[in-house]
Amino acid sequence: MSQPATNPNLLDDVLKYVEITSFGMKRAMDEIDVHRGMQKKAADLQPPLLDKLLAMGLVAGHQKEAAQAMLGSHADTLQLFSNLAEKYAALRTEKSAAAHNLGGGVDAKQAGVTSPEPDGSSMTSPWVGRHTGEKKASDLAILAVLDSPPGR
């Protein structure tokens, strides 16, 4: 025959132990599910991000495999982000310096300026009020009136 338990609370203690451990296991499983979900989401974002970085020129073509490996690790992703931030800052500084290069010549196409009309006609010229030493069509019309005023 079996002997009765010497500790009357043993059964209650075992039930509490099972309850606490099952609660702990459930929380651990929930954390694992959340972690796996975040890993899957990050893995799904990696290929389009890498393609975008290549298209923008922030990652060179010969560095594609290294960048892909860096995107697979959180610490390496942060290092890649840091490198990209430095490169972006350098490009922005370079662009700003080029924009403030005063006194330098600018190509007419880059400046958006069209060349003046070869015939010098004020009627076809895109410039209004342009000062030239040549007589314009409007000048000729005024001079014709001045040379022979009406009613003389």
Radius of gyration: 40 Å
Structural class estimated from helices and strands: mainly alpha
Mean pLDDT: 80
**What's the helical proportion of residues?**
55-70%
Number of strands: 0
Order of helices and strands: HHHHH
Low-pLDDT runs of 5+ residues are none
First-residue to last-residue Cα separation: 149 Å
Overall morphology = rod-shaped
Instruction: Tell me about the largest β-sheet.
Output: none
Number of helices: 5
Strand content: under 5%
Spell out the key features of this protein:
single chain; 152 residues; mainly alpha; 5 helices; rod-shaped
Helices and strands in order, then pairings?
Layout: H1 10-55, H2 64-71, H3 74-99, H4 108-111, H5 137-147
Question: Could you characterize what this model shows?
Answer:
This protein has 152 residues and is mostly helical. It has a domain at 11-94. It has helices at 10-55, 64-71, 74-99, 108-111, 137-147. The chain is rod-shaped, with a radius of gyration of 40 Å. It starts with 9 loop residues before the first helix and ends in a 5-residue tail after the last helix.
Précis, in short:
The protein has 152 residues and is mainly α. The protein has helices spanning 10-55, 64-71, 74-99, 108-111, 137-147.
